[in-house]
Specification:
The structure holds two protein chains of two kinds.
Chain A lengths: L12 E14 L4 E14 L3 E5 L6 H8 L7 E6 L2 E2 L9 E4 L11 H11 L4 H14 L16 H13 L5 E5 L7 H16 L3 E5 L3 H7 L2 E6 L2 E7 H5 L4 E6 L3 H10 L2 E5 L2 E6 L2 H13 L3 E7 L4 H10 L9
Parallel strand pairs in A: 3-8, 3-9, 6-7, 7-8
Antiparallel strand pairs in A: 1-2, 1-4, 4-5, 9-10, 11-13, 11-14, 12-13
Helix pairs in contact in A: 2-3, 2-4, 3-4
Chain B lengths: L1 H16 L2 H19 E6 L2 E7 L2 E4 L3 H33 L7 H5 L5 H35 L5 H27 L2 H18 L2 H7 L3 H13 L3 H12 L8 H23 L3
The chains are: A alpha/beta, B mainly alpha.
Chain lengths: 324, 273
C-alpha cells in the first residue's frame, strides 16, 4: 500500500510529540484535569506501535491531539514532520475512532466514498478502490449497499477500518480496531494489518486487548494518569522477568554460594534451579558451575507477558502525578 | 473541490434520510397542485377572456395585478412559514455534525475546519434553496402559462428568501458550535425572527419609550439584528413592481450574517472535540 501523498519527512518519525499536554479546566467548579501531561513520544516510520493505559489514562485525548480534534494546552505534535494542526499533515493518516458514530443513512459503499473524497481521492480512484477495500476487510458483498443502521458492531468495525485504509495512508491510527469483532474477524483484521506493516505502513494501535498488542506490535508505550510511564520494544519489556539456570551434579558448597547470588533457588531430584535478575549474574553463575565441572541443563530468559508488565506499571504511581 | 462536493452531497443525503427534503418537496408540490386546481383561465381566440379563482370570475384587465398579489401572498407564506420550517429542519442538520464519534473522524481528514463547516453550511442552504426555487419557479411557470404574466419580481423575491435563510442559518451554526444543541439553536433563531418585526416598528417604539438609553437599545438592536420584516416589504415591492426605498435592510442583514458566520467559524476552529 504505497501512499498516494508523498510527504518529505526528514525526521524519520511518523509521530513525534514534545511535551504534549492537555488540561481540561472547569471554571465553575474551579478544578482542572491534566488528561495528558508532558508526553514526549517518537514513533519511527514503518513501526507497529501500541499505546496502552487504563480507562481514563489519557490515551484517547493523546490520539485526538495527534489528529487535531483536541487542541493541546502546550507542547507540539508532528506527523511525518508536519505540525499536527496543519490539515495537510493528515493526508497520509487513516483513523478509526473508538466510539465511532458513522452516519446511519450511509451505505457501506457510500461511507467509503464520502470519507475517501474528504481524504483527497478523486472519483475514479474511489470507484476502483472501494470494492477492493470492502472485500479486503471481509464485508459481504450483499452488505455493500445496505444502510449502516442495519450493520452489526463487527460489520461497522470492518467498514470503519476500510475507510481508514482506503486512501492508502502511511500512518494508520486505530482505536480498539477489533472491538466487537468475532475471533475469526480479529484474525482477518490482524492479517490485513500485518500485510500493511510489511508494506511499510506505520500502525499506531490503541487497544485494551494486551494479548493482541503483544502479538502484533513491536513497540509499546504505557500511559498512566496522563503521563508516559513506560515505553520500549515489546521484546525488551517482556524479557525483563530475569534468567533461569538449571544444572546438575552441583556440589553442596557451590549451591550455598550460588544461592546467595541468586534471587531464588531450588534443588529437586539433584537438579539445581537458579533465578537471576540480570544476564550478567546468570553468566557469572554459569562460569562458576563450569569451573566446577557441573553440567548445565539449560539457560533461558524468563519472559513476562505484556499483561504482567502492564499491571506492574499501572500499579506503580508515576512520579509527579497529582490528583486534582 | 472533491471535498466540498462530498460535504454538500452528504448534507443532501442526510436531508433525504431525515425526510426533511421530501417533507419540503411534498408541501411545495401540494401548493403547486393547489394553484393549478384553483386557477382557471379561459382563453378566447388567443386573448384572456376571464380568470376565475374558486369559481369567482374577474375582469381580464385586473389579471396582472391579481397575479402579482397572489404571488406576493405565496412569497410571504414562503418567507415566514417556509422560513420557520426551514430553520426547524436545518438545526438538526447542523448539530448532527458535532456528535461525538462523528466529528472526530471528520476532523481527522485533511480538510480544514473552516472548509468542513462551510461545506455543511452550503449544503444546508442548497437543500432549502432547491425547494424554494422549486415552489417559486413552479408557481411562476403556472401563472405565466395560465395568464401570460411573466414578471421577474417573483423570481427575484425567492433569492431574497434564500438570502435571509442563509443569514438565519449562520445563527444556527454559531449556536450549534457553541452548545451542540438543535433545540437551543431553534430557540435563539426563532427569538430573532420574533424580535425583528417588533424592532421594525422602531419609530413607534422610540415614541413610546420614555428614557433615552432604552431608545438607544432599540436602535442598536434594530441596526445590528437581521431585518427580516423590512426585507419582507422589499420582497413585496419587487413582486408588485414598486420601487424599493432603501436596500439598507438587505446589506446590513448580510453584514450580520457574515459576522455571525465568521464567529461560528472562529469558535469551531478553536474548539476541542
Amino acid at each position: 500500500m504505497a501512499s498516494g501523498f508523498a510527504i518529505n519527512n526528514k525526521s524519520g518519525f511518523a509521530i513525534e510529540t514534545e511535551g504534549l499536554t492537555r488540561v481540561f479546566r472547569n471554571r465553575w467548579a474551579n478544578t482542572e484535569l491534566r488528561a495528558v501531561d508532558n508526553v514526549s513520544l517518537q514513533v519511527p516510520e514503518g513501526c507497529t506501535f501500541g499505546l496502552l493505559g487504563a480507562n481514563g489514562a489519557g490515551k484517547t485525548t493523546f490520539v485526538k491531539m495527534l489528529l487535531s480534534s483536541v487542541h493541546p494546552t502546550s507542547g507540539t505534535a508532528r506527523i511525518f514532520g508536519r505540525h499536527a494542526q496543519d490539515a495537510s499533515s493528515r493526508r497520509s493518516v487513516g483513523y478509526l475512532p473508538e466510539n465511532h458514530r458513522f452516519p446511519t443513512y450511509m451505505t457501506g459503499w457510500g461511507m467509503l466514498d464520502f470519507y475517501g473524497a474528504l481524504s483527497g481521492m478523486d472519483s475514479a480512484s474511489r470507484k476502483r478502490k472501494i470494492p477492493e477495500m470492502l472485500t479486503t476487510v471481509g464485508l459481504d458483498e450483499r452488505a455493500w449497499h445496505t444502510r449502516l443502521g442495519k450493520y452489526s458492531k463487527g460489520m461497522l468495525q470492518r467498514v470503519g477500518l476500510g475507510q481508514a485504509m482506503l486512501h492508502a495512508p502511511r500512518l494508520l491510527v486505530l482505536d480498539e480496531p477489533s472491538d466487537g469483532v468475532d475471533p475469526v474477524g480479529r484474525k482477518q483484521i490482524r492479517d490485513v494489518l500485518q500485510a500493511l506493516e510489511q508494506q511499510g505502513v506505520t500502525i499506531f494501535l490503541n487497544s485494551h486487548l494486551l494479548a493482541e498488542v503483544e502479538l502484533f506490535c513491536h513497540d509499546v508505550a504505557i500511559i498512566q494518569k496522563g503521563k508516559l510511564s513506560l515505553s520500549g520494544s515489546v521484546k525488551d519489556l517482556t524479557s525483563s522477568g530475569g534468567y533461569r539456570v538449571t544444572a546438575c551434579e552441583v556440589p553442596e558448597a557451590l549451591i550455598s554460594e550460588l544461592a546467595t547470588r541468586s534471587k531464588a533457588h531450588s534443588v529437586e531430584h539433584g537438579l539445581l534451579e537458579l533465578m537471576f535478575s540480570t544476564r550478567e549474574q546468570a553468566n557469572s553463575a554459569v562460569d562458576s558451575l563450569r569451573a566446577n565441572q557441573c553440567e548445565i541443563e539449560s539457560l533461558n530468559a524468563i519472559r513476562s507477558t505484556l499483561e504482567e508488565v502492564f499491571i506492574r506499571t499501572v500499579s506503580e504511581k508515576p512520579e509527579g502525578v497529582t490528583d486534582k | 473541490m472533491n471535498a466540498t462536493l462530498a460535504l454538500i452531497r452528504d448534507t443532501f443525503r442526510e436531508a433525504f434520510a431525515r425526510r426533511i427534503f421530501w417533507g419540503f418537496f411534498g408541501c411545495c408540490t401540494a401548493l403547486l397542485l393547489f394553484l393549478i386546481f384553483i386557477l382557471r383561465v379561459d382563453v378566447v381566440q388567443g386573448a384572456l377572456a376571464t380568470i376565475s379563482i374558486f369559481g369567482n370570475s374577474l375582469p381580464s384587465t385586473n389579471v396582472e395585478n391579481l397575479v402579482q398579489q397572489t404571488q406576493s401572498v405565496i412569497a410571504m407564506v414562503l418567507y415566514f412559514a417556509g422560513m420557520a420550517l426551514s430553520v426547524f429542519a436545518s438545526a438538526g442538520l447542523v448539530s448532527s455534525v458535532f456528535e461525538p464519534g462523528r466529528i472526530e473522524l471528520l476532523l481527522s481528514k485533511p480538510v480544514s475546519r473552516t472548509h468542513l463547516l462551510l461545506g455543511r453550511y452550503a449544503g444546508n442552504v442548497l437543500v432549502v434553496a432547491a425547494n424554494i426555487l422549486y415552489l417559486v419557479v413552479g408557481s411562476w411557470v403556472i401563472f405565466g402559462i395560465k395568464t401570460g404574466v411573466w414578471g421577474l419580481g417573483f423570481l427575484i423575491s425567492s433569492l431574497c428568501t434564500i438570502f435571509v435563510f442563509s443569514v438565519l442559518l449562520a445563527v444556527i451554526v454559531l449556536v450549534g458550535v457553541i452548545w451542540d444543541s438543535a433545540a437551543v439553536a431553534i430557540m435563539v433563531t426563532f427569538a430573532i425572527m420574533i424580535l425583528t418585526p417588533i424592532l421594525a416598528q422602531k419609530n413607534t417604539l422610540e415614541r413610546l419609550l420614555s428614557s433615552e438609553w432604552s431608545r438607544d437599545v432599540v436602535r442598536v438592536l434594530y441596526y445590528t439584528l437581521p431585518k427580516t420584516s423590512d426585507i419582507s416589504i422589499i420582497i413585496r415591492h419587487l413582486i408588485l413592481n414598486q420601487p424599493v426605498e432603501s436596500w439598507m435592510p438587505v446589506w446590513s442583514t448580510g453584514l450580520f450574517g457574515i459576522a455571525v458566520l465568521g464567529l461560528g467559524l472562529w469558535r469551531f476552529n478553536k474548539r476541542s472535540f
